[in-house]
Amino acid sequence: MGRAVRIIGAPTDFGSNRRGVDMGPSAIRYAGLIEGIESTGADCTDVGDVRVPHVRRHGGDREDPVPNAKHLDQIAEVSTRIADEVADAREEGALPIVVGGDHSLAIGTVAGAARDADLGLLWFDAHGDYNTPETSPSGNVHGMPLAASLGRGAFADMDWARADGLREKNVVWVGLRSLDDAEREAIREGDATAYTMADIDERGINDLVEEALEVATSGVDGLHVSLDLDWLDPRIAPGVGTPVRGGVTYREAHSAMETVADWDRATGDLHSFEVVEVNPILDSHNETAELATELTASAVGKRVL
Ligand SMILES: [Mn+2]
After folding, report:
1. Who contacts 63 (Cβ-Cβ below 8 Å, separation ≥6)?
2. Rounded to the nearest 10 degrees, what angle do helices 205-217 and 250-267 cross at?
3. 21, 134, 212, 239: most buried, per Cβ within 10 A?
4. Can you say how many angstroms the Cα of residue 97 is from the centroid of all Cα atoms in its chain?
């Protein structure tokens, strides 16, 4: 029997201003996620979706606990459930794959994966997701999960958000191309490592991801990989809430995931994976969900030969 993989659905859109991303888990399952993972020889179990509160627009009856962090109480609730599911999967020897949903769900995944392990992070994204409520131009928490995991700014005292086993020096972005001003400044001053699209152009995706893996996993027990579909060029991944021109190509994305899989084959240190921001309402014939499915299969070892 192959390695155990556990699918955890997180149908949440509380971190995004575009509705519909909560249907991502359905669309990704429909596109054949389980079959794709099983084709690698893995033993894949789908535990279904974590429970997500129904109320979204809270108007007068449900105040946001922190200014400029919309729906943070709902996000805390969902994050805690995701963290518990991820930690359970890890404890039982399975690789948790969290399927979103908007990127705020990463707060839960990372907290769960870093509960009993020192963790490195590879963040494949057009955006930094490093804003705090103090710096965010929108107040949408899907632009803040890394700041939450690291306990920056208003997140400093939020135990549910902080990832105990995560150090900033083990956080690595790959393929950034859209940063807010304050976010750019914070990344420049911080200890994390940022590779932009220009770095990919210059050095090629394989070399860059190999180096990113080294930086992320230096001195830690394992790695979490976060894949935001807006990392890809919107011509091939149109079904995302915040598309930015100039993203990676189909081949580059597969190469990056295959490089992660090769590294994991050698080390066995991939601790968790998540795939986020697929919005079926904005998609064209489910092609972004299909892409998410293919890339996830690549990351867990699907190969041509
Ligand atoms: Mn993101």
Report:
1. none
2. 40
3. 21
4. 10
- Residues 70-105 as b or e (16 or more Cβ within 10 Å = b): bbbebbbbbbbbbbebbbebbeeebbbbbbbbbbbb
Q: Is 228 a residue of the active site?
A: yes
Let me know if 63 is a catalytic residue.
no
Decide if 71 is catalytic: no
Verify whether residue 103 is a known catalytic residue. yes
254 is catalytic: no
Question: 49, 85, 142, 271: which is the annotated catalytic residue?
Answer: 142
> Of 49, 102, 127, 258, which is the active-site residue?
127
43 in catalytic set = no
For residue range 181-209, list pLDDT tens digits in order: 999 999 999 999 999 999 999 999 999 99
pTM confidence score = 0.97
- Name the active-site residue from 277, 283, 290, 294: 277
Q: In what order do the strands lie in the sheet with 193-196?
A: 43-49, 4-10, 95-100, 270-276, 222-228, 119-124, 166-176, 193-196
